[in-house]
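Give me the fold.
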Amino acid sequence: MLLIAVLNGALGCAPIPVTSRPLTNPVQVQGNDFNLVWEKTVDTLHEYQFPIANENRLSGEIQTENKTGAGILEPWHLDAATSHDRWEGTLQSIRRRMIVHVIPSPEGNAFFVSVEAYKEIEDLAGIASNSPGGATFQENAPLKRDLKSVVGQSRPSNWILKGRDEALEQAFLASLVQNLQGR
């Protein structure tokens, strides 16, 4: 157990610091400039390296594409908010996606920003064959004109929804609030 704690600290896998008490989701941010809150939200998504799939200012919704989960050797990826998430991403194929809503308050002097982070794990039907052997030329075989010699996965992967990633949601909201306070 001590070895795992030392490795976590050495590889930068310590949990991302979040405020002592959890933030409400949606979080209320003060201000009356929708464009500023929207752009800071997009900037925070870019800090977390989530590619944006759809941005709709009229409905106040941002959807990201799936992002491959970070492992222990990728401390610059912030999607794994805890050391447990980092180890899980090292041992299991994981992907995450986010949906963010920016909604003006009825009073008009604040905005509510809600975050939904979803985590999925990969479920392969069998062993993934990624051997380069079928794509290389054999020295002792006659030349064959088989242009489909590259072997890969026979069918697409299945993904199992593991639910919401609350640690990532809290870390993202904390970063967003900090970015908005720095303006």
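The beta strands are 27-30, 52-56, 61-64, 67-68, 94-104, 110-123, 158-164.
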